[in-house]
Amino acid sequence: MQVEKVVLSSDAFRGLLGHCFVTDQEEVLGLLFGDMETKTVRIYGCLSLQRNCKEKDRVEVEDVQLSSAMTSAEELSNTLQQECTLKGWFHSHPNITVFPSHVDIRTQAYLQALGPEFLGLIISCFCRDSQNVWNM
User: What is the pTM of this model?
Assistant: First the structure.
């Protein structure tokens, strides 16, 4: 099913930003949880993952982390008493724009095997180029 809309809860958004603002020295990553209704993916939970990559401008989602995330999704489903599945991943680009790198595109293609609605979200949190700065 094609995704036409993504809704990110305020709690999930705060969690993502909190994790991404931890460092401007290396990329961070995590997973997104939610559900899909019609053509809308709703994200209401996130899980920060530990970096295992030595390069500061790269992140990798490992199969063990995905397996553990499936368990976390089940636990979240029980807590919220509604369906919750793994719906995507996120990572930061601390000092560059949100445009995906070739590594990001390869990672998304790999993770897309989990479902056609599997999302990839890039957060550019410290980039200060003229296109990203809001002047008052």
Answer: 0.79
